Amino acid sequence: MSYFKKFVYDLKPEYSVLVEDDGKVCYAYLFINNKIVGDVWLYNKLESPIVAEWQSPDNLPFLNPIEFIKDNIKSFSDATNVIVDWNSESKVFAMIYISNRLIAKLTDGDFPGNSTLVIKDGPLARVL
């Protein structure tokens, strides 16, 4: 089962987060005025590879390899509690919670964003 949902920041509707599970992998994308300004890996739906697959663009979207993963959560559905908590103290950022667990943080220019599910920084997510 795949998942696709958009979350809009009520106070600044030009900001939104799109969470997409395409059946292979799940990512979150931060948009400002419909332009992607940040992204972060959330989880692998398929088995996590031992060797990174990001050498070839044919493999997009990339699975995160085992060496980077601290915890790979299970995929979820529309019934799962997914919340994007917005904050705009000095810079707007989105905190992504799944089943009341902080999973990721995204802000403008995060390529990649931060994740609580990785053990070390990589090209798909940085440690949060």
Comma- or semicolon-separated keywords:
mainly beta, globular, about 130 residues, 4-stranded antiparallel β-sheet
Structure notes:
With 128 residues, this protein is mainly β. It has one domain (3-127). 0% of the residues lie in helices and 42% in strands. The protein has strands spanning 3-8, 15-21, 25-32, 35-44, 82-87, 93-98, 101-107, 114-115, 126-127. The strands form 2 sheets. Strands 5-6-7-8-9 form a 5-stranded mixed sheet, with no helix packed on it.
Quick take:
The chain has 128 residues and is mostly beta strands. The protein has no helices and 9 strands.
Blueprint of the fold:
Elements: E1 3-8, E2 15-21, E3 25-32, E4 35-44, E5 82-87, E6 93-98, E7 101-107, E8 114-115, E9 126-127
Parallel strand pairs: 8-9
Antiparallel strand pairs: 1-2, 2-3, 3-4, 5-6, 6-7, 7-8
Question: What is the averaged pLDDT score?
Answer: 94
Q: Report Rg.
A: 14 Å
Unreliable spans are: none
User: Helix/strand-derived class?
Assistant: mainly beta
Q: Could you say how many structural domains there are in total?
A: 1
| Main sheet properties | 5 strands, mixed
Tell me the quaternary state. single chain
Give helix and strand order, one letter per element, not per position. EEEEEEEEE
Shape: globular
Count the beta strands. Answer: 9
Helix-residue proportion? under 10%
Distance between the termini: 28 Å
Adjacency order of strands in the biggest sheet: 5-6-7-8-9
Q: Strand portion, in percent?
A: 35-45%
What's the tally of helices? 0
